[in-house]
Design a protein that fits this description.
The protein is of the alpha/beta class. The protein is built from 9 helices and 8 strands. The chain has one domain: Alpha-Beta Barrel (TIM Barrel).
């Protein structure tokens, strides 16, 4: 597969979305989501495209891939994180997108204190209203964010959400817009560096996410092709 062409097409779409919304493409980070793909495939993407920012959603896979792939890769963790797998993620991931509960945040803080490391992360908010998705409820965003921000050895950098999988663009846009409103509410309480990251948008909806304020788009299929299991 020609991954170079795939990435070029994604980057062109990012540029157009930025132009429509009066933003600079320099403000958007492209996170290549490599979950389910082998290290050989990831290595090909690394070699062909020059991408160095990769996202993994499985904690144990992150540990394996980190060991086997080039050490200049910047890893983000984007999946639901179980407390018993913090040890696989905290020492590796430069950003954990999916801090989805106070319980998880406290567990991360305790682990990091014990091992004298720090985790940077995003608070995941369930703006879709779907019970199948993780994340805190939107109305709790400010209170939970401030609570987690007070924990030791864990530093929040912004917010993350996953929009509903639907062809109704207004529903998708509303999910992203709702998260951005929470960012605006937080701006009254925290310094800008704590809400500088907005992780919104995947292959099927990243252009809408950019138009609504995303700073990181999580792209898998449009780069790697259809997934295995």
């Amino acid at each position: 597969m020609n991954f170079t062409d795939n990435v070029k097409r994604v980057q062109e779409r990012i540029v157009k979305a930025c132009q429509r919304s009066g933003r600079s493409e320099k403000d958007i980070e492209l996170l290549a989501v490599c979950k389910t793909f082998s290290t050989d495939v990831i290595q090909d993407v690394y070699d062909q495209t020059g991408l160095r920012l990769f996202g993994e959603s499985r904690a144990q896979d992150l540990r394996v891939k980190h060991k086997q792939l080039p050490q200049d890769i910047h890893w983000h963790f984007i999946g639901h994180l179980q407390t018993n797998k913090i040890k696989f993620v905290a020492p590796i991931a430069e950003l954990t997108h999916s801090i989805d509960s106070m319980h998880l945040a406290q567990s991360i803080s305790e682990y990091c204190l014990k091992h004298e490391i720090k985790v940077e992360g995003l608070l995941e908010v369930n703006t879709s209203g779907e019970k199948s998705k993780f994340g805190i409820q939107p109305e709790e965003t400010v209170d939970r964010f401030l609570e987690i921000d007070g924990l030791s050895n864990i530093e929040l950098k912004g917010l993350m959400t996953i929009a509903p999988f639907t062809e109704d663009q207004q529903i998708v846009r509303n999910a992203f817009r709702q998260l951005y409103k929470k960012r605006e509410a937080l701006a009254q309480h925290v310094e800008p560096s704590k809400i500088s990251v907005m992780s919104m948008g995947m292959t099927q909806d990243f252009e809408l996410a950019i138009e609504e304020g995303s700073t990181i788009v999580r792209i898998g299929t449009a780069i790697f092709g259809s997934r295995g299991r």
